[in-house]
Amino acid sequence: MDKKLAISVHNVSKNFKLPHERYNSLKQSALHLFSKRSYSKFEALKDISFDVKDGEFFGIVGRNGSGKSTMLKILGGIYTPTKGKVVINGTLSPFIELGVGFNPELSGRDNVYLNGAILGLTRKQVDAKYDEIVAFSELEDFMDQHLKNYSSGMQVRLAFSIAIQAQSDILLIDEVLAVGDSNFQTKCYNVFRQMKRDKRTIVFVSHDMNAIKDFCDRAALIHDGVVAAMGTPDRIINKYNQLNVVEAEDSEVASELAYDTTTRWGTGDASILRCETLSGEDKRRIFQPEQPLTVRIEAQAKASLSKPILGLVIKNAEGIRIFTTNTKLQGTSVPNLTPDEKITLNCIIPPILGNGTYTIAPAVADTDGKVIYDWIEDAASFEIRGYDTSDGIIQPRHTITVKKGS
Amino acid sequence: MPTKSENQLKTGVEFKVSRNYWGLVRELAVADFKLKYQGSVFGYLWSLMKPLALFGILYLVFSVLAKFGSNIDHYPQYLLLGVVLWNYFAESTGNGMRAIVDKSDLIRKVYFPRIVIMLASSLSALITLALNLVVVVIFIALAGIAPGFITLAFLGLIAELFLLSLGISFFLGALYVRYRDFVYIWEVVLQLLFYASAVIFPLNMVPAQYHALLLLNPISQILQDSRDILVNPTQTITTSEVIHGPLMLVPYALPVLLAVFGFIYFERVASRFAEDV
After folding, report:
1. Hey, which residues 61-80 in chain A have their CB within 8 Å of chain B?
2. Is residue B180 within 8 angstroms of chain A, CB to CB?
3. Is residue B7 part of a domain?
4. Contact list, A26 vs chain B (CB under 8 Å)
5. In this complex, do A10 and B9 lie within 8 Å of one another by their Cβ atoms?
6. Would you say residue B161 lies in a domain?
7. pLDDT per residue over B197-229, tens digit each?
8. pTM of the complete model
9. Across the interface, which of A73, A85, A169 has its CB nearest the CB of B11?
10. Cβ within 8 Å of B, A 13-42
11. Which B residues 30-59 touch A at CB under 8 Å?
C-alpha cells in the first residue's frame, strides 16, 4: 500500500485569456459591446498529473515561463484550473512569496500578527511564538518601528521567521533560499533540513539546482506547460541542464541574418554579414552571471568607403535601449575600405546586464553618421540567465552593508 | 499515478481539511482600523472627536441659529444619530468597494476565502461606528433621555445596517475589480440616497404622501427607528406608523435579500479575482 497522498493533481490544464485590449471601464466595454472581444489564449499548463506523498520533499524545476509558478498557484488555490482537479489532503500554508500582506505603515510587531494570520496562525499561537520569531529574525530592537524603516533584507528576515512558524501539514515554497546574507542563509537551510527531518510535506520551486539536489526526495521538470520528466533530483537536474543546452543550440541555428525590409534599411553601400555574441572565442547565446560577453559584427563594403562608422544598439525585451555605442563615440579609428573589403568589430561588454533577453541592432554609417549604409533591427539576441542575488535592468557587482542605528 | 477511475472528477481545487478564517478577519479589520489613523497625532481619538465636533456644529446651527427642526425636541441629538449612522453606511460601502482591489497583492499571492476581505472591511467600519456611538450616547444621556428596555432593539437595527452595507459591498467590491467606473457611480448614488434617507431634514417637512415612499428605503427605516428608540419616541415618524400590511416588511427584508444575493454573486466571481485584479 502506498503512503497517504498529500497532494494529487489530476489532468490539470490552465489557460489564460490575454485580451488584446483591456477594458477597465464601462464606457470602453460599452463601446466594444458588439465587436467581438479579441484575445489570445495562452496555455500555461497542459494536462498535468502528479502526486506528492505525505512527508515528501518535492521539487519543481523549469525555466522562466515554463508554467511552474502557475502550477504552484493552482496548488495554493489562488488560481482555479481550467480543466482538471487538485486534491489537497491536509492544511496548507503558502509562502509562495515571503511577507505577503506586510504593511509598511504598521509596526514590525503588528505585521507579525497580520502575516501570521495570513499564514493560518491564531493570535494565541503567534503570542506563544512571538519571542522565537523575533529572536530568529534578529530584529529585537526594531519591532516597534514601522516596517517602512526596515531595509529590504530586514523585511525578508522577519517574513521568513514568521513563515517557518506556519503549523500547516503542507508547505508551498517558491524561491526563498536566496535571501539575506550568507549567515542568514545558513539558518534558512538548517530550517529546511529540520522540516525534512520532521517529515513535513513540502513543494519547493527553485532555480537553484544545488538546493533541489540537497533537499528533494523527488522532483518534476515542467517545460512548456507539461511535465517533461519526473524522478530523482539527479535525473531531473540532468534533464534540466540538457534542456538549456538544446535551447542554446537551437538559437545558434537561427542566427542567420534576415533580409526583411521592415527591420533592415540603409543605402547598401555596406552590408552587415554577421552579428553574433561570444564568450571569449566561443559562440554563445546564453550567458552566466559574471561572464563578459563579446558582440562581433562583420561587415563588407560594397563601394569605396572613407572611414565609416560601425556601431550597435542593445535593447532589452521591452524594447528599451540599454545602450548605444559606435566607433566614433569611442574614438576608435576605422580604416578606409575598398569594395568587397571586409571588416570585423569586437565590442566587449563587462558583466553588468541583468537577467533577461536582449537584442542587438548592428549598423554601418558614413564618417559623419548622417548616411546609414546598413542597419538591422534585432539582428541577434542573447540571454543573461542565472542572477539570483539582485534584480533590475542592470546588475553590477555591488556590496550592501547594514548596521544598527542611524 | 492518479487513478483515472474517479469519474466524478470536478474541475477545481479541493481542500480536504478546512481552516478557520475568523482570526484572519479580525487581524485584517484591526490592521485596517489602525491604518486609518496612521500618522495622525491624536490617532483613535479622532473617532471620538469627529462626532463631538459635528455635534457642536449641529447644535450651533439648529438650536441657536436656524429654526429648521424646532418642532422636534433634541433635534441636534436626532440629527447626530442620523449623521453618524449615515457616515457608517457611506464609509462601509465605499471601503467595501475598494477592498478587493486594495488587497490585490494579497489576493494574487495567497488563497483564503475572498469573503474574508469583505468581512474585515465591514468590521473595520463597524469599529469606527462603535466609537462614534459612544459619543452619541453620551449626548443623548446629557439631554436627559433615559434608556429603556426597548433600547436593546437598537442593536438589531445596527445588525440590519451592517447587513445592508455588507450586501451592497459584495456587489460593489466584485464589480469594481472589472469596472473602475463604480467609484463615480457610487458617489452619485450615495448623494441621491443621502437625500432620500431623511438624514438631515425632519420627515414632517416633506409632504405626507411621500412618507411611505421614503420609508420603504431601509436606510430611512433604520434611521427613523433608531431615532424613535433612542431620541424621540413620540415625534419620530417611523415605517410602522406610515406603512401597513405586508409592504411594511420591505425595508426589513431588503438588507437580508441584498446580503444573500450579494454573497451569491460575489462567490460566483471570486475565484477569478486573482487573475483579474
Report:
1. 73-80
2. yes
3. no
4. 179, 181
5. yes
6. yes
7. 888 888 888 888 888 888 999 999 999 999 999
8. 0.70
9. A85
10. 16, 24-27, 29
11. 31, 34-35, 38-39
Q: Which long-range contacts (CB under 8 A, 24 or more apart) does A319-322 make?
A: A320/A393, A322/A353, A322/A358, A322/A393
Measure the CA angle with vertex B110, ends B107 and B113; round to 5°.
70
Instruction: Tell me the pLDDT tens digit for each residue of B158-192.
Output: 999 999 999 999 999 999 998 999 999 999 999 99
Is A51 touching B (CB cutoff 8 A)? yes
Q: Considering only the beta carbons, identify the residue of B14, B180, B274 that sits closest to A25.
A: B180
Chain B contacts of A80, Cβ < 8 Å? 11-13, 271-272
Q: How is chain A split into domains, by residue range?
A: 5-230, 264-384
pLDDT at position A35 is 59
Measured distance CA(A56)–CA(A290) in Å, rounded: 35
The C-alpha of B52 sits at a distance from chain A's nearest C-alpha, in angstroms, of 27
| Average pLDDT of chain B, as a whole number | 87
Least confident of A261-270, A316-325, B76-85: A261-270
The answer to whether A103 and B36 are in contact (CB under 8 A) is no
Is B132 strand, coil or helix? helix
Q: Is the separation of the CB atoms in A90 and A168 below 8 Å? A: yes
In 3D, which of B162, B174, B152, B150 has the Cα closest to residue B271?
A: B174
Least Cα distance to A105 among B116, B99, B37, B128 occurs for B37
Asked if B220 contacts B127 with a C-beta cutoff of 8 angstroms, the reply is no
Pairing of the two strands A83-88 and A92-95:
unpaired
Assigned domain for B78 exists: yes
| Complex ipTM > 0.90 | no
Q: What is A264-384's CATH number, 2.70.50.60, 1.50.10.140, 3.30.420.140, 3.30.1950.10?
A: 2.70.50.60
Are the Cβ atoms of A81 and B11 closer than 8 angstroms? yes
| B125 domain-assigned | yes
A224 Cα to chain B: minimum distance (Å):
20
Number of domains observed in the structure of chain B: 1
Residue A261 has pLDDT above 70, yes or no: no
Pick the CATH number of A5-230 from 3.40.50.300, 3.40.190.10, 1.10.645.10, 3.40.50.720: 3.40.50.300
Contact state of A80 with B271 under an 8 Å Cβ cutoff: yes
Give pLDDT, residue A181. 66
Any B CB within 8 A of A107 CB: no
For B138, the domain range is: 22-33+43-276
Q: Which of B26, B38, B272 sits opposite A105 (nearest CB)?
A: B38
| pLDDT at residue A34 tops 70 | no
**B24 in contact with chain A, both atoms CB, cutoff 8 A:** yes
Q: How far is CA A357 from CA A103, A285, A382, B148, B181, in A?
A: 33, 10, 6, 75, 38
Residue of A nearest to B4 (CA): A10
